[in-house]
Design goal:
elongated; 23 helices; 658 residues; mainly alpha; 76% helix; two-stranded antiparallel ribbon; 2% strand; disordered C terminus
């Protein structure tokens, strides 16, 4: 294929990948608005889960079927299903309906995620492939940046051309998908090799067992934190998934080469190691990509759109590393070192993130993001190349889709595990940060200041966290002052009013309070009085919060909705921010441990040499070689005067060894 023909095919493939990658980022920004409009914000997880499960389980199925029926028809089918699913999602009237249509959309997304890399393996030699894969990662980077921006614009608009704003999040896929479909139909034409008359043997039972295994396991991975990991529903998912896995192994063993995921692939140490590395990289990658935007929005205070732009260092690092490593592979044919360097850089990036505090500047976080991007840009490309070069050309599709499949499984489990870690330890960390003397003194001083407490921007954080704490404090202080007032009044009973007033004033000075309407009260707007009481109350309150007693335990653990933090006074939000930061750092330590394991394994990774031609070219060469041998046999028979006809039987041919 000429360079122009290759580019035309790649444009169609990139349009399809742009659809799937854009859909993930654009929906994430708008899901809150969608949930509010459809009166089902508490069901939003099902919308994400349905799409994820459908796209994950169809990935290996597409890979195997494309080896049997060809890439082109299945890729066209995937784009068409994705377009229809997007159109149906636009018409949703409830969150459950949207989840169902998103699942249908995910069936098409499975093709968009797995087949482009397999098609590239078909039409490009590995060295050339490394160069062109930079284009795909550029598409991924662009969609990651503009996705939150477009999602924010659409969800923020009430209507666009008479259609509710958030519905354009799905409707925008239709024209892009149609353009991609037309380009693929026009330019993607791949020859097919093999016995066209042979009836394909399709592993329907294997596909069914994949679904039975993955659906319950992915479901519990996404919903286990809500259900409870030891709940009856979770246990049922474990059991069904385990039975499905046993059935899958038995079926795939019996189906041999015709299996959806042929077990013979794992006989290759290279493929097995690439699969393990891909799983670990997916686990760590999704952990970073999921928690960093949350950190940017909650701790740094950026909007969803701004946080999308703030992740540019990660995307930039990913694109730079991908393009640079691709050029190196294209010129040298060597890629063994990239998994080692890539895992080392991601590990270093996670180490930087573990030093994050709420007082660190944004550029410090960007350094960690850039290092993670540099590492991922080298890893994803080299692991895919190794997987493709470890199998025969006819297994290119199933090998590529299997590598993508296990990376997605790692990402799904990484998302579930790391989110579970984050939200499980966050309440305790927030309590601990609130109990810290420095944090508590500053926050309590702000919460007891009427000017700060009554500010409109602070209303949410006061209601959620501080009013349940300061209201009992004020009542307790006033109760003690009321007793002091009663004692002074009783002691000066019958004395002139001036004497009583003088006694109350003296008692007020001693109690660091004021006299109002003949009573001792604290003027919380007075800096001196407020500072005294804050310093007096903070140590006792700190011990109570550390033990998790009182109303402060429930108020500080309010993490289901953090919108009340936006624009609030920094002193009031500091304990929450510190607790979230500590939780995020724990997540980064987990990610570091996972990627460190990948770094150790990468030293034992044996990368096979790159092929010199594309998969289709190898199949073509193989087919023509068989014809050449037959022609040579006939010529040899003619030279020797031997008859050659169907009835003469086979003619043994032996080539001289050089």
């Amino acid at each position: 294929m000429s360079h122009r023909q290759i580019l035309l095919v790649i444009y169609g493939l990139m349009a399809g990948m742009f659809l799937s990658s854009l859909d993930q980022t654009i929906v994430g920004t708008a899901i809150r608005t969608i949930g509010d409009d459809l009166h089902g914000l508490d069901q939003q997880a099902w919308v994400t889960t349905a799409y994820l499960i459908a796209s994950t389980i169809t990935t290996p199925i597409y890979g195997k079927l494309s080896d049997v029926f060809g890439r082109r028809p299945l890729y066209i089918f995937g784009i068409a299903v994705f377009i229809i699913g997007s159109l149906l999602s636009t018409m949703s009237t409830s969150m459950i309906m949207l989840a169902a249509f998103r699942a249908f959309q995910g069936i098409g997304a499975g093709a968009l995620m797995s087949l482009p890399l397999a098609i590239m393996g078909d039409i490009l030699a590995p060295r050339e492939r490394a160069k062109y894969q930079g284009y795909f990662l550029a598409v991924f980077g662009i969609s990651s940046v503009i996705g939150p921006l477009i999602g924010g614009l659409f969800s923020g608009a009430s209507t666009i051309l008479g259609v509710t704003g958030w519905r354009w999040v799905f409707l925008i896929n239709v024209p892009i998908g149609i353009a991609a479909l037309l380009m693929v139909i026009a330019f993607l034409h791949l020859p097919k090799f093999g016995d066209a008359k042979a009836k394909p043997r399709i592993d329907w039972w294997g596909a069914t067992s994949v679904i039975v295994t993955l659906v319950p396991l992915l479901l519990v991975a996404e919903q286990g934190r809500t259900w409870g990991w030891g709940s009856a529903g979770a246990i049922a998912c474990y059991v069904i998934g385990a039975l499905g896995l046993v059935a899958f192994l038995v079926i795939e063993t019996l189906m041999q080469d015709d299996a959806i995921i042929p077990l013979k692939l794992f006989r290759s140490g290279t493929f097995s190691m690439a699969t393990v590395l891909g799983f670990l990289v997916g686990f760590a990658m999704f952990g970073a990509m999921l928690t960093i935007p949350l950190y940017l929005q909650i701790v740094t205070g950026l909007t969803p759109t701004e946080s999308g732009f703030a992740t540019l260092p990660m995307i930039g690092g990913l694109m730079i590393a991908s393009i640079a490593s691709g050029q190196i592979v294209a010129r040298t044919g060597r890629y063994r070192i990239f998994p080692v360097i890539g895992t080392a850089l991601v590990s270093l990036g996670y180490v930087v993130l573990t030093f994050m505090t709420i007082d660190k500047p944004l550029w410090f976080l960007m350094i960690g993001m850039f290092l993670i991007g540099l590492g991922l840009g080298q890893l994803m490309q080299s692991i895919t190349l190794a997987s493709q070069n470890s199998v025969q050309p006819r297994d290119m599709g199933v090998a590529t889709s299997s590598a993508t499949f296990f990376r997605q499984i790692g990402g799904t489990l990484g998302t579930a595990v790391l989110l579970s870690v984050l939200f499980s330890i966050m309440p305790a960390n927030i309590l601990h940060a609130t109990a810290d003397q420095e944090n508590l003194t500053g926050a309590l001083d702000a919460a007891l200041d009427p000017t700060v407490a009554t500010a409109k921007a602070n209303q949410g954080v006061m209601d959620q966290i501080w009013n349940p704490i300061v209201t009992p404090i004020k009542q307790q202080v006033q109760s003690g002052l009321d007793q002091a007032t009663a004692q002074v009044t009783q002691a000066t009973a019958g004395a002139p009013e001036a004497v009583q007033q003088q006694a109350l004033t003296a008692a007020a000075d001693k109690a660091h309070a004021s006299v109002q309407d003949g009573k001792l009260v604290v003027d919380w707007s007075d800096d001196a009085q407020r500072t005294y009481w804050v310093n007096d109350l903070a140590p006792t309150l700190s011990k109570q919060i550390e033990k998790g007693t009182g109303d402060s335990a429930s108020s500080s653990s309010e993490t289901s909705d953090t919108s009340y933090l936006n624009g609030a006074d920094a002193a009031l939000t500091r304990p929450f921010m510190s607790g979230f930061n500590a939780s995020a750092v724990t997540v980064y330590w987990v990610g570091f441990a996972v990627i460190l394991l990948a770094f150790v394994l990468s030293w034992f990774f044996k990368a096979p040499p790159l092929r010199k031609s594309s998969a289709l070219q190898e199949q073509a060469d193989s087919a023509s070689t068989a014809d050449d041998l037959e022609v040579q046999a006939v010529k040899a028979a003619d030279t020797m005067g031997s008859p050659t006809a169907p009835g003469t039987g086979s003619i043994p041919v032996q080539r001289d060894r050089v």
